[in-house]
Each structure stands twice: as structure tokens, then as C-alpha cells.
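ok so for the tutorial part 2 we go from a plain amino acid sequence to predicted C-alpha cells. step 1 is just haveing the sequence, like this:
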Amino acid sequence: MANADVADLVIDMRYNGGGLLDIVAELGYMIAGASATSGRTAFKVEFNDKHQVVDPFTDEAIKPKLFFNRVLVQSGSLGAALPSLNLSRVFVLTTIDTRSASEVLMNAQQGVDVEVIQIGGTTCGKPCGFYSTDNCGTTYSSVNFRSLNALGFGDYGDGFSPADNNPIDEVILPGCNLPEDLNHSLGDPDEELLYAALRYRLDPTYWSIRTTPASTTPTLQAHTEPTSHIESGLAHLTITPLGSTPGR
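step 2 — the prediction. this is what the C-alpha cells look like for a chain of 248 residues:
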């Protein structure tokens, strides 16, 4: 991500079930850069009306979590400055398995005016999180809070959905509803979701959706250009789930 020539970023979160929210603050900074995120909220946790000032689990004042420009978690390089791409838009590849912290990242980027273009299926719809609590050998992870972005938005309980998916209650994002392509490996530029992102960069009108007689599932028109012609200036990042962690 240190490559200053990168013009766009594709984040593959189709199987990412979430993780540490602090990773959202780090990755969000690396995408949007200092000018968009300096002093701004990556996310803020919101409890019920009985706990609006103090976090009932930490006994600390509830404050917005700002974007991080230095390594604070999950690394041996604590305190090291993070690189950034200073992008104004990001492509996100999604499925129903995209949830929790992955959706918080999508919401956080929109909160600082980064355009999120969604390719794939509607996300799970999990704006809420938890502090895990142990009791007699059993760990309970009850829903404790929801997450809001810098604009105070967190109402995506029905998920984020590409605009052409005819969403009803979902949050609508620009993009393209596409089914999984199981005939290509993840990261293969001919894999349908990644190819759509690559092609869109050259021609935003490319997403011409058709319905086959045997199915009502929208599909992308056949590839018309070699992927080698359309990859310049794009970075592709696959996010690996971090597993269940406190503060998720």
C-alpha cells in the first residue's frame, strides 16, 4: 500500500466475518489518507439510552474512535507510521458473509466522503458488536452496542447492497450485483467480481445487466477486453478475518 501510483483499491471482503474494530481505524486511514481522516471519527459505539455517557464495560467515557495513522494493534511494529493511498473511492467485493467490522469499514469510508463501490452480493447487516463475558467456563457474546460513522450513521441492519439489486431495506451503494464466480481462484483478474472492478475503472457504464431465460440472477456481460489492458494503477487487497475478539 506504499505505492503512490495506485489510483484505486479493490478490497476483497467476500468471506470476512469481522474482527477488531481498531483495524478499521488503521485500514480506513491507509485508504483515505491524512487530509480526509485527520481528527475525524472512524467509528463510535452507541449503547442504549441508559448508557449514553459512560461505557458500562470499561467505565470510560464514550468517545469517538479516531482514525489511526500509526500501528497500534496486531503488529510487532507498534508506533510505526502507516502508509496511505489518499483515495477518493474504493471498490469492495462482498457476499452475505461480509459482516461486522467489514461493514464498519465500508460505513467508515462513507463517513469521510470516500465513495464505496460495491461488487457482489448484499452484506450480512451487522452494525452491532459486543464485549465477550466469561461466566463459569462459558463465554457469552451478547449484543452490546452498535457502530456509527463520522456522520452519525449506523442503520444498516439489512446490509449494504449494490444499487442494481433492487434493494428494499438495505443501504444502497453504487455498484453491481454479481453472483460468486467459483470457476476462478480468488485474486485471478478473470474472476468475475474482480474483473468487474477492473473494467469499471475504464468505463463506468460497463455494467450492463441482463437476465438469462433460465434464471433471474443478474449476470455480467461476457468479458470483452483482456485483463492485462485494464490493471494498471490498481491495488488488490484480500482481508483475512481476525476471528472473534473483544470489542468486535
